[in-house]
Amino acid sequence: MPAARKPRAGSRRQTAAVALAPALRPVVDLCLELGITSPEMERILRGVFVQQAERILSAGRSAGPHASDLRIGLMTGVHRNFVREIRATKPSVRLQKVQQRHRGDALLQAWATDWHYLTAAGSPRDLPIRAPEGEPCFARLVAQHMSRVPIRTAIAELRRSGAIRLLPDEQVRLRSRSARPPGITETSIAAASARLSELTATEVHNLKAPEQRLFCESIDALRIDPRRLALVRQTLAKRAQNFLDLLAEELAPEATFPSTGPTVSIGLTVFGHERSPGDPGVSPRGRRGTKA
Predict the structure, then answer these.
(1) What is the dihedral of CA 6, 9, 10, 13, to 10 degrees?
(2) pLDDT of residue 239
(3) Every domain of the chain and the residues it spans
(4) How would DSSP label each residue in the chain?
(5) Are 138 and 172 in contact (CB under 8 A)?
(6) Distance separating alpha carbons of residues 155 and 33, to the nearest angstrom
(7) Consecutive sets of 10 residues in the chain, 292 residues long: mean pLDDT of each?
């Protein structure tokens, strides 16, 4: 029999890229909740590619020039002119150049600041969905800031994000200046991002260095009655917290052990995973796991 062909490098990259898609879905879900658009995240992603490539290419260099724009461009697939721009510009400034920003936020900001839509006291007024020509209404805001979007679609999207409230008699009330769910703040996003980074780094480390694995194991998920969910959550949280408290007490002396050189940061994160029937991108096995 003829020898099996080895997969081409391009094919392997494409297969790996497709396999990484499920890991991105929760982040994309959060972006959609926050109104962060695909062009905005694409700019951020290119920036991360450039920063990480620069770190890798500059690793081990105690002196001498940093990695060139050309080398970083070859490694990341980003044109060297864009690499130069990314390296010279802060992420927040790069996002200001994105043309396709979230139009819902522009509508909400105009409603909260444009005197046409404010009361005599300077508060955003409740608006009729439609009104005679020249009078303030929600339809006028949609036409100005969400052109070619049907009014009902705009209402449904902004209601989903909690930014507006639909009142009786075809009136709309502004609830928030941004299409952001309550409870999500810059601080909480940063904390969640740090944990996601730690978990991802552990999984990637174990893929690249299986002989030096960091602890990251799971137990099989339990199929439970939804009516028992609150009790099971409470049990898992209590047992996991007790375990972490005992482990922290046991390892406390390590923090005071005299060191003669650079130290290594090590930690353990315990997380629970829940999956409802039909959730995409999750193995039917499901799991609760730990990360170190």
Answers:
(1) 110
(2) 93
(3) 9-95, 103-174, 185-216, 219-248+287-292
(4) -PPPPPPPHHHHHHHHHHHHHHHHHHHHHHHHHHT--HHHHHHHHHHHHHHHHHHHHHTT-SSSPPPPHHHHHHHHS--HHHHHHHHHS-HHHHHTT-SS--HHHHHHHHHHH-GGGB-TTSPBPPEESS-STTS--HHHHHHHHSTTS-HHHHHHHHHHTTSEEEETTTEEEE--SS---TT--HHHHHHHHHHHHHHHHHHHHHHH-GGGPPP--EEEPP---GGGHHHHHHHHHHHHHHHHHHHHHHHHHHHTS--SS-------EEE-----TT-TT--TT-EEEEE-
(5) yes
(6) 15
(7) 59 89 90 81 90 86 73 92 87 58 78 92 93 92 90 88 86 80 75 90 93 89 87 92 91 84 86 76 45 52
HSE at residue 184, side-chain half, CA atoms within 13 A, is: 16
Q: What is the DSSP string of 183-216?
A: T--HHHHHHHHHHHHHHHHHHHHHHH-GGGPPP-
Residues contacting residue 80 through CB under 8 Å, at least 6 positions apart: 69, 70, 72, 73
